[in-house]
Amino acid sequence: MIAATVGEETVSAAEVEERLTTLYAGPLAARLPHPGSPEGRNLRRWLVQLMTMERVVAQECDLGGEAVPVALPVALRTGGVVAAVLATPAGRALFERVHADVPPEEVRGYYDRNRDRHPGRFEEESPRIEAHLVHARREALFARWLEARHREKVTLMPGYEHPGDPRQPDATHRH
Amino acid sequence: MRIAEIAGTELFAEGPRQIVRVTLEEGAPAEVVITGEATGSATGAGVVEVPVETGRAPGETAAVTVRAGGDEKTAEFVVAEPGWTVWMVSHFHYDPVWWNTQAAYTTTWDTAGDAAQAGRSAFQHAGFELVLLHLETARREPGYKFVLAEVDYLKPFWDAHPEHRAYLRRLILEGRVEIMGGTYNEPNTNLTSAESTIRNLVHGAGFQRDVLGGDPRTAWQLDAFGHDPQFPGLAAAAGLTSSSWARGPFHQWGPMLGGGDPRRMQFPAEFDWVAPSGDGVLTHYMPGHYSAGWWMDSATTVDEAAAEVCKWFLALKRVAATRNVLLPVGTDYTPPNKWIMDIQREWNARYAWPRFVCGLPKEFFAAVRAERAEFLPQTRDMNPVYTGKDVSFVDTKQVQRRAEVVVADAEKFATLAAVRNRAGYPFALMDKAWRQLVYGAHHDAITGSESDQVYLDLLTGWREAYTIGSTTLDGALRVLGAGLSGVVVWNPSSWPRTDVVRARLTLPPGWRGIAEPVVVENAVVDGDGFLTEADVVFLAEDVPPLGYRTFSFTPGVNAGWLPAGGTSIANDTHAITADPARGGGVSSWVTGGRELLQPGQVGNELVVHDEYPAHPKFHEGPWHLVPKGTRTRSSESAAEVVAERSAAGERLVVRGAFGPVAYVQEITIWHGLRRVDLVTRLDFDGADQLVRLRWPVAIDHALPVSEVGNAVVGRGFALIDADTADHPWTLDNPAHNWFALSATCRIGGRPIGVAEIVAGPDVPVAALRALAVALVKQGVTATVSRADGPRYGDLAVDSNLPDVRIAVGETPWPKGWHPAARPLTEVWVPSADLTAVDALPVLSIGAGDVGALIDDLADAVVEVAGESYEPYTVGLINRGVPGFAVEPGGALNLSLLRSCTGWPSGIWIDPPRRTVPDGSNFQLQHWTHAFEYALVAGPGDWRDTGLVHEGHDVNHPLIARDQGVRGEPAAGSLLDVPAGLVLTALKPAGNPIATGRLPGAVTGMTMRLYEPHGRTGQLDLPGWRRTDLLETRELPAGPVTGMDVVTLTRDADGGGAVPGAEPFQPVFTRYWLHNTGPAPVGNLPVAVHLTEETVTVASSLVEGVAEGVVTLDGGQTRAFTLAPGAFRAWPNEGWTTARLEFDGQTFEDRLGPARLDATTETPHLALRAGERSEIVIRLTCDAPVQAQLISPWHTYDLLPVWNTGVGPGRHELRFPVVGGHLPGRWWALVKLGSAGRVHYTEPVTVEVLP
Fold it and tell me: Which domains are present in chain A?
């Protein structure tokens, strides 16, 4: 049984269960929702997000399909799967490939609007501002690119949909 | 080349020219030319957007011919309307408490326990991080605008991050951030007193306006589980002009639940929300929920995200009152949406209309008002939503009510003591008490939606409010009662009272009892058989309003409860019989010669309904009532019934057990009182069950009536016996002090309670508003709909049901009164749909007859020739048990408690996880509970029966003080209040602490009154001036109309401010890390904060210079002088503690880990009345530890010491246990907070043996 396909590769349901078993055997176990509950099923969906993202990253890195494990606690603590990917060597390698430019007028605009942070002369402050804006832009581009690649490459099977997908049966925005 | 498809859109290019989308199949780019009733051309391949000009009007059809690359096709499209704007409002919804803790939600989510990650969505962040992320986006994106709201993160952020104050002030000034709400948080106002709601507004507006410098205008109540009917009036009186929220008229997710069409709504999303007082605010209901626009965040391209916004535009525009759509872009704890600014840039560059704008609610409301002056009025009851909220963690609702009462009564008498006796007023303590009540009123707190750990955290807040109230009340009565002798009985009500009162009296030597008609209970008898002390219960006659009367006693025979034989009791008003064979249920209740119970049924019956752990379809837990449709009744088992008499009254005592319940019930009638006083005590050990208390009364055609905050409204029958898998909506509702079967208003022989006003096109909106107001002042809420629109009354979409229609003007109904085709009880069935034209009775009048109908409604009776009705009322008064359900057959049900195992029941963030000693989740409520309630019955409606006064009196018992058993006769009233009005608050004038000021001497008094019966009267109180809720504006004098809430103030010199302090010092500055609720006593006027990099000290005062010294690691000091709102920062030279003494308190911030070990000595304590014991905690720590004993509210007297702490070192913390007279089994544990970490000790069983 297949949980998802990533390009030419597949993520089998057995692999997901294996990873889930590891999780339930680990230090998180006592705090995890019952696997049969809607929360438990959504945890499995999160795991599939991670596993498919690992494959996407591996394929993009040309590492011969060797997945780079992304840890679930890291994903949840740091604000998402993309952030978790950025915490892996492969993710950082991919991020290095992202280039962004910020037009000079944007740097000047930022300087003019944020003089409380940049009280010095524009010439002194602009390199720092540019670096800051470029980095923010690269992060945004990377996240968008990675999510787009994930969207293009990954097909999720029923039961393994994105946990936030309102169409999946366990999607309950509580409150 | 082939033209595959031609479609009109709602999009416009410059011109404005409507865009027609022409899809070309195959081939190179081609010119597409449109001719006919619309003309235009464009060149492209694939989907070509062709802007066209047309002479046709919006809504009409245009026939066109389309030519491209040799192909030609004809088509029609609907001409769209330009000028629409989608206001994308960037917001995040923050709850300080829910399944996760205050600490995690505010700052520490990333480092909180693993359980804090399991329920987290990937995009979610803690409050401070969110504010920073939105500020950063604002710095990068000059067009970015966003909303900040709840004080629970704003206040800590303002204090801990003063370096962002200037930028935030600038954004406010530039109109790029809107400080929203004018409330402290998003309270569930339907579960608290109206005064708690008012203080929520006082603290919200005070902080947001005075301290932050914002201009809150829109009550932002996104997630509240329904709203109190008076809320819009209170919001208006607090200076707000609008409101916006997602729950109320329709079920939980709104009309679009499950892909539903919002056009099922009977009125536009923008409407005039009107309270029973007649005041209201323009309101935007969010048909797509407050999260609607957030989900585009997961789009992978800007086109995809924009398409999502466009989809919402097309859906929401169908129910917009003007060409403005509010799209909330955010959900719980969300960062700035990825696409919002790209959409604004790219969409608006491509299209002229609709505009997609990142904007603020105030811009949306300004645009709405600019386009339309009048909006349909709605007095509709915005309930019920999430019926589980009325009963989950019921003990917290009981303690909220008790704390509200004691705090309000303490405030009244302390204000009088300050003005009459120049006593000092404890501003800081009373302010903290109110803030705890306001904090606890949050929609994930008072609703019982919280996890087990959060429940324990919240309990300390209610206990603190209760403790401050009790202590303040004692002090005030000591001052006011100085010089009085005897047993002094105080009346906190604003009318004269004759009522029973309980006093603990110390008796002089040689007394064996009391000669007067009293009950002596819980006596302590010495070796010679003489009483030394006892509870004395007696009828205190004619105690003046807000005043006192002294009573004296003479020695006599000990008159306790004596066996009376049989199973019946009687007094001048009632005769009551219980049936031991049927669980001790009341088999007969006769008053005024009338048997009130339905034949063959028993009253006071306990019914245990089986429930699902979570809703079978919606999955959610504690906030839904989810009965399975099966139940067990106390009447199915036998019980013991004992009748007893005393000199003061008679009672029945019932003892029984069945299923998960063991119970003791007392039914007491007093000589000289017309009320029946009842108490049910029960021990419960079930899971996923709901315990209701049932009184099947017989009153023909009567309808449910419910007191709400400072008003009374009709509410429909509930449908409690169906399986919620098939019929999800039980229609339980929350009552304030009481609910009843009665008639709040009637047309001819038919009582009415909930109306649909169906308006013809010929009726002006002003007339509709006047009619809706006239109805709601008599307790009839109304949905105002249009004759050509959908009808109200389909449970598939509506949260509640009407019982009458009033058709006005040109409607399908002929003029006149049309009785319903079938009785109401036949159509009011599970999943009812009452939208058929003949489902309900209809009163049809002409547009010109509105004035006459309004006049007719002044006495709550619309006369119909040949019809008559004799109303009769049975009311059930609760003490903090709000959940009620009246079955269509007439049975009154009070929801006593429930256990729910559904998420987040049992969730625990900071290990080790604690449970009730039997191992169950706290949400299951496995301990001894007591429920006090009362019954009132009589001819006439609820007004004639005096239910408002009775409900108030039961909740505000007379207060007795032992100043000797014999004394001088004396009586007096301390304040004149007009008869006919209810006083709900008497306080020192002004709100210094809430508005960022240090309190000074009392300079005046402010009182709040409301009219309870729908009657209009003049208000003439010399010296008093009308003012608004915030006491900032003077209002013109005028009559008080039905259900009005008025605030009056007068000058009066009073005592000074008594300084207040937290019981344990030093106070940890980052209080939220200890999950202790709102800011400490005094509201942190100056806050010291330490980070690895800096030491800051920041003033949140709005006047006066704050001076002081910060001491670092007990050595170095830094002096500061701060102007209002200013801060100072110094580099941290490696310090780990920073201390500040200010206004009589010591505040400390501390970095780094602190050691904390604690063990509990005895896991089980059992004792009898009068015996003493101790809970002992052995503790080792290297930082100050705040220690708070937590236990259910029933044990406050049992565990009198609860809020303390210790400095670094090894300690034994000892909490005394004092055996009381009521047996039961409870639990207690100690929450330890140290340097930002919390630990909960092992729970101890505390058992009082009989």
Answer: 2-156 (1.10.4030)
